[in-house]
Structures are given as structure tokens and as C-alpha cells.
Amino acid sequence: MPWEKSFDEADVLDSAMAVFMKKGYDSTSLADLIEATGINKGSLYNAFKGKQDLFTQALVRYDTQARSAYLSELEAMDDPKAAIERFFGDLVASSADDPEKRGCFIVNTAGDIGGHSDEVKRIVVNSMKHVEAFFRRCIEVGQARGDIPASVEPQATAKTLFSLMVAIRLLGRGAYDRSQLEVIGREAVRLVA
Questions:
Q1: Which residues contact 59 (CB under 8 A, 6 or more apart)?
Q2: Cα–Cα distances in Å, from 44 out to 4, 98, 171?
Q3: Tell me: the pLDDT tens digits for 119-143?
Q4: How far apart are CA 149 and CA 152, in angstroms?
């Protein structure tokens, strides 16, 4: 008789994601994952092949839900300058309002990228490239409409905005409070004013 799952895979990935975000890959034990997901070791290995595969799948799910869907929503606003403003406003709010100070799964993983598989590196780099490309597109469209000054260099400014996003995510894990994060967010928006 074939093995049947008695759990929702999405729920397991979400639970594992929360543990990985809080503790990081290396500090997360199999016991942590079993406790968080509520499934036993055998089921975990049958469904995910182990900790590494579970981490990779959770990272892909996070990227799809957090980055991809959110950037699509912002681009649908059809106001590039307002999209950048909302991006940094939401970023500061989510960083400051997270009681567990988990940060961003992609950014957290990037901080320890050397210890991960090539597949994880590819996921992280791809996600980061998409965020930077979002900023570049916003700047280019804003310039074409006359909303963003032509003196703003799209590629360099997109890299700077991306770097400020990473800074907010990292510093928002406890080093900076909301008012300090807001300063970074306002300065980011000023780059396209």
C-alpha cells in the first residue's frame, strides 16, 4: 500500500519556514522541525527527503508568497514613485511590528550564503535580482512619465534602494527601533524624489 500524507504540505512548509527564519538553518535541529510541524521524522523524510530539502522548499514558498506576489501588487499600482514609497513604508512597518524580529527569510539566508547549496544560492540571488529589477523598472517608468528626475541613474539607484532594503531588514531584527528604520526608509524614497 503506498504511503499517504496525513498533513497539509503548505502548513508544514509554513511552520518550518517560521523556525528557519527565527533560528537559521544551522541552528535548526530536526527535533525543532518535528515539534514545529507536528509530523514525525519518517513522514518528514518521506515528504521532504530531510532538512535541506525542507529548507529549500520553504525558501521557494517564501519567495513566491513574499517577494513575487508583493512586487506584482506594487507594479499593478501603475505609479512607480508611489510603489517605491509604499514598498519602504511597508518594509519599515513589517520589520518594526514583528515581535519575533525574524527579518526576511531571503535576506537572512543571504547573510550565510556560503554555507548553503548551489540551489539555495540560486534562489536567493534570483530573488534579490528581481527586487533590484523592480526598483530599476519603477525608476525608468517614473522617468518616462516625468515623475522621477532624469538625473537619477536607474541601475545605480536600484542597487542603492536594494541595499537600503537589506539594511532595514537586518537592522530591524533588533538593532534599530521604528524611528531609526523610518529614517532609512525616508532617505530611500528621497533618492527618487
A1: 17, 20, 105, 106, 109, 120, 123, 124
A2: 12, 28, 34
A3: 999 999 999 999 999 999 999 999 9
A4: 6
- Cell 525542507 appears where? 54
Q: Which three cell numbers stand for residue 153?
A: 541613474
Distance of CA 155 to the CA centre of its chain: 21
Yes or no: say if 51 and 30 are a contact pair by the CB < 8 Å rule: yes
Give me the helices (H) in 38-145, please: 41-48, 51-62, 69-75, 80-97, 105-110, 118-144
Residue 163: all three cell numbers together: 541595499
Instruction: Give the residue extent of every domain in the chain.
Output: 9-190
9-190 is classed in which CATH architecture?
Orthogonal Bundle (1.10)
C-alpha distance across the termini of the chain, in Å: 64
